[in-house]
């Protein structure tokens, strides 16, 4: 079952003192987030495939960090990287966009808005919607209407009372934000934010 504590721990371990994003804890954090599956099936199905693809990259190339992955894939040139639909960079970019959506949703959940459908829609419109075709955007918006209440979500976090869940979200969100920020900067620096 989902554990916010495990996700928090994984994203806490992600960033080194040198501001590198370690891939093993990153993937561990995503494996934890995927356990929200039934709640976010439209995101988790895609995330499962992306995590599996990144795990395969790790096994073949033994990357430790996101920076190492980017450096390795850029060695062949940006044009060659853009031509590979299964590249690690492209896969990370898709997860990166979903992480932003999740970060915004969790911030909203922490803030106290009781209607999770509103929180989810707002977070989606501010992040993933711009990368999805109209049909996917409509399907996502419909799926959000079936989300459980804020109280049910806080219970799903598996950390105790609603107050304890909100407190732990307050701890977790900065770590997720840090990973997001480092990745955003790295991908912007190498012109990877619009990989097809």
Helices and strands, in N-to-C order? HHHHHHHHHH
CATH homology superfamily name = Glycolipid transfer protein
Cα Rg = 17 Å
Class inferred from helices and paired strands: mainly alpha
Helix content: over 70%
What is the count of DSSP helices, taking H or I runs of 4+ residues? 10
User: Segments where pLDDT lies below 50 for 5+ residues?
Assistant: none
Oligomeric state of the chains? Answer: single chain
Number of strands: 0
CATH-derived architecture: Orthogonal Bundle
What is the CATH domain class? Mainly Alpha
**What name does the CATH topology carry?**
Glycolipid transfer protein, GLTP
Overall number of structural domains: 1
Quote the average pLDDT. Answer: 88
Catalytic activity: N-(9Z-octadecenoyl)-sphing-4-enine-1-phosphate(in) = N-(9Z-octadecenoyl)-sphing-4-enine-1-phosphate(out); N-(hexadecanoyl)-sphing-4-enine-1-phosphate(in) = N-(hexadecanoyl)-sphing-4-enine-1-phosphate(out)
Membrane topology: Peripheral membrane protein
Protein name: Ceramide-1-phosphate transfer protein
Subcellular location: Cell membrane; Cytoplasm, Cytosol; Endosome membrane; Golgi apparatus, trans-Golgi network membrane
């Amino acid at each position: 079952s989902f554990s916010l504590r495990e996700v928090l721990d994984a994203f806490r371990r992600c960033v080194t003192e040198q501001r590198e994003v370690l891939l093993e804890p990153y993937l561990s954090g995503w494996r934890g987030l995927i356990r929200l599956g039934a709640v976010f099936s439209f995101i988790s199905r895609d995330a499962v495939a992306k995590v599996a693809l990144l795990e395969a990259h790790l096994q073949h190339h033994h990357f430790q960090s996101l920076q190492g992955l980017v450096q390795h894939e850029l060695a062949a040139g940006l044009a060659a990287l853009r031509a590979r639909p299964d590249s690690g960079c492209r896969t990370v970019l898709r997860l990166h966009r979903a992480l932003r959506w999740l970060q915004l949703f969790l911030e909203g959940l922490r803030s106290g808005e009781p209607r999770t459908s509103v929180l989810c829609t707002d977070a989606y419109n501010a992040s993933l919607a711009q990368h999805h075709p109209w049909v996917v955007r409509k399907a996502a918006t419909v799926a959000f209407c079936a989300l459980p209440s804020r109280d049910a979500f806080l219970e799903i976090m598996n950390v105790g009372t609603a107050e304890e869940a909100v407190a732990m979200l307050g701890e977790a969100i900065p770590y997720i934000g840090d990973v997001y920020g480092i990745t955003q900067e790295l991908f912007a620096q190498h012109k990877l934010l619009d990989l097809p």
